[in-house]
């Protein structure tokens, strides 16, 4: 019962536009429809999405991952580049679950803002849908949260959640890695979605402009290049070479130095050779303009290597050929050797 002496307030007066939210859902549905795959039983629009575990798996193990895009979003806001951060969002999670041998099945997103711009949100979700297509997984649900007073106008936050499945007997855990195995590196597309706090600091320090040229392209295009999704090529290599692929590491925060040890047993070390790959122009520019030491570069940025694969030496050439046939640029980075001491580094770059 209303008080006749009081103003009549609505949710929109409080800053939440239900109609805008419904308009966004209408824009999202056809984007999500393009990502549908076998197994989807119910997707966007219901209270919960339904997915049937693939019947061909005898002992299916579900593998889950969640991540965001980090401070790359700050540049998306400043440069009004909203169409590719959704690809980044998908990539960070699907690449993570891929390293255990899982095929990504479905993805959900969380988009939070202070005031909902349907056009901006639809652009972001369009990128998410594109990322799901590249990964072969279904965008089956998500949440759009309009929260007045929580975010400045024009800004938002993103989180994503991926679920995949792998045959229990084919889980990749790195335990079979041994001395003499070969360390392969799959090229990154750029800085991906890590190290952007330092990257932005260097941009400011260098008085860089988004339109200035770097390696023949506008700087903003190079910096905002979306994270490469390795799913289809790596799954193809796993299908063809199976046990020869002993370990996978997604090179994210922590770079080469901190991520490779995550798949090694304590007695092993990955010995990489710096001249085995060419560091892309972006990282050279960052290092020169920021005066960043080599060790810091290797611990913060991927330096041109987005995924590491450890394989049996006798199958290394065949694995490389398969990856190249599926569009990957592959470098033979080094080999697995005995660790010098229990407290010695587990990744060394010579």
Model description:
With 350 residues, the chain is α+β, with helices and mostly antiparallel strands. It has two domains: 18-170, PurM-like, N-terminal domain (60s Ribosomal Protein L30, Chain: A); 182-349, Phosphoribosyl-aminoimidazole Synthetase, Chain A, domain 2. Helices cover 33% and strands 24% of the residues. It has eleven helices and 14 strands. It has helices at residues 18-33, 72-79, 85-98, 118-135, 196-205, 219-223, 231-241, 255-259, 281-290, 294-300, 316-325, and strands at residues 40-42, 50-51, 60-67, 103-113, 138-146, 156-167, 182-187, 213-214, 217-218, 245-250, 268-272, 305-311, 330-338, 347-349. The strands form four sheets. It has a six-stranded mixed sheet with strand order 10-12-7-13-11-14. A hairpin with a 2-residue loop joins β8 and β9. α3 runs parallel beside α4 and α7 (231-241) runs antiparallel to α11 (316-325). The chain is globular, with a radius of gyration of 22 Å. The model has no long low-confidence stretch (mean pLDDT 94).
Determine the fraction of residues in helical runs and give it as a percent range.
Answer: 25-40%
CATH architecture of the largest domain: Alpha-Beta Complex
Global geometry: globular
Query: CATH homologous superfamily name of the largest domain?
Result: PurM-like C-terminal domain
* Arrangement of strands in the largest sheet: 10-12-7-13-11-14
Radius of gyration: 22 Å
Main beta sheet: strand number and arrangement?
6 strands, mixed
Question: Which percent range describes the beta-strand content?
Answer: 15-25%
Distance between the termini: 76 Å
What is the succession of H and E elements? HEEEHHEHEEEHEEHHEHEHHEHEE
The CATH topology of the largest domain corresponds to Phosphoribosyl-aminoimidazole Synthetase, Chain A, domain 2
Structural class: alpha+beta
Strands, count: 14
């Amino acid at each position: 019962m209303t008080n006749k002496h009081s103003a009549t307030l609505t949710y929109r007066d409080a800053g939440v536009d239900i109609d805008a939210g419904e308009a966004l859902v209408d824009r999202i549905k056809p984007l999500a429809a393009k990502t549908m795959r076998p197994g989807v039983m119910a997707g966007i629009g219901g209270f919960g999405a339904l997915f049937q575990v693939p019947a061909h798996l005898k002992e299916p193990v579900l593998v889950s991952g969640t991540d965001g895009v980090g401070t790359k979003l700050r540049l998306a806001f400043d440069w009004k580049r909203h169409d590719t951060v959704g690809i980044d969002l998908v990539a960070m999670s699907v690449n993570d679950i891929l390293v255990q041998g899982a095929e990504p099945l479905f993805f959900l997103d969380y988009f939070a803002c202070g005031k909902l711009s349907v056009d901006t949100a639809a652009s972001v979700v369009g990128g998410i849908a594109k990322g799901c297509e590249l990964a072969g997984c279904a965008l089956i649900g998500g949440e759009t949260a309009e929260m007045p007073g929580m975010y400045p106008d024009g800004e938002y936050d993103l989180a994503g959640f991926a679920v995949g499945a792998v045959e229990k007997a084919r889980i990749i855990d790195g335990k079979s890695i041994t001395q003499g195995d070969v360390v392969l590196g799959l090229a990154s597309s750029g800085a991906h979605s890590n190290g952007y706090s330092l990257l932005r600091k260097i941009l400011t320090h260098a008085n860089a402009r988004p339109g200035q040229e770097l390696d023949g392209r506008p700087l903003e295009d190079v910096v905002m290049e979306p994270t490469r999704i390795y799913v289809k090529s790596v799954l193809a290599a796993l299908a063809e070479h199976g046990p020869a692929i002993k370990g996978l590491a997604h090179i994210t925060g922590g770079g080469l130095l901190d991520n490779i040890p995550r798949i090694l047993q304590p007695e092993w070390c990955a010995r990489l050779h710096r001249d085995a790959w060419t560091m892309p122009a972006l990282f050279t520019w960052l290092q020169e303009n920021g005066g960043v030491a080599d060790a810091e570069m290797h611990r913060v940025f991927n330096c041109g290597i987005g995924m590491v694969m450890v394989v049996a030496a006798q199958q290394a050439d065949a694995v490389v050929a398969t990856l190249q046939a599926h569009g990957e640029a592959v470098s033979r980075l080094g080999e697995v050797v005995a660790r010098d001491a229990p407290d010695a580094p587990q990744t060394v770059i010579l």
